[in-house]
Amino acid sequence: MFAISEQAYSVSSMSCRLLEIMSSLAQVLPERYGYVVLAVAGGSLVNIYHIVQVAKARKQYSVKAPLTYSEDEPAFNRIMRAHLNYLENYPFFACTMLLGGLQYPRASTSAGVMWLVGRIWYAKAYAEDSSKRGSGFMISSLAQLLMLGNTIGFGLRHAGVIAACRARFSR
């Protein structure tokens, strides 16, 4: 009985500590960082869009789970491939948004929204005809490069590289 109440106390104190950390974190995050978080949440909504599209395609083309490929239905394969491609790219999106957004919240949010629009465009075009997915791919790729640039800029600043370069070349 003592172990249970000690464990309950431990969980309760961990929860309180987590709340303290979260509240401290909110005080040090840059202004407008909430938009970065909302853009990342938008990425989850786009994933739900993909899930719904795949579920509809499974029903329409009679492709039972856990199959991820159909020998007979290329339309199903295009929808599934668009979803899988999204899942392959989402970690890059989320990491570069959250990290780059610490230094450049507005630029990261803009690039993130651009990425989301590109991914939806890509999915819709790919579902129709795989040769039409290029525009969505280009939009999301450009956005990815912008987000990566923001993340690299954040890393260089916090590694002290930018300050060192300024000191070296300002002589």
From TrEMBL:
The keyword Membrane applies. One of its GO terms (biological process) is leukotriene metabolic process. Signal peptide: none annotated. The chain crosses the membrane at residues 33-52. Pfam families: MAPEG. Keywords: Membrane, Transmembrane, Transmembrane helix. It is found in: Membrane. One of its GO terms (cellular component) is endoplasmic reticulum. InterPro entries: MAPEG (IPR050997), MAPEG-like_dom_sf (IPR023352), Membr-assoc_MAPEG (IPR001129). GO terms for molecular function: glutathione peroxidase activity; glutathione transferase activity. It comes from the Eukaryota. It is a multi-pass membrane protein. PANTHER family: GLUTATHIONE S-TRANSFERASE 3, MITOCHONDRIAL, MICROSOMAL GLUTATHIONE S-TRANSFERASE. This is MGST3. It comes from Bugula neritina.
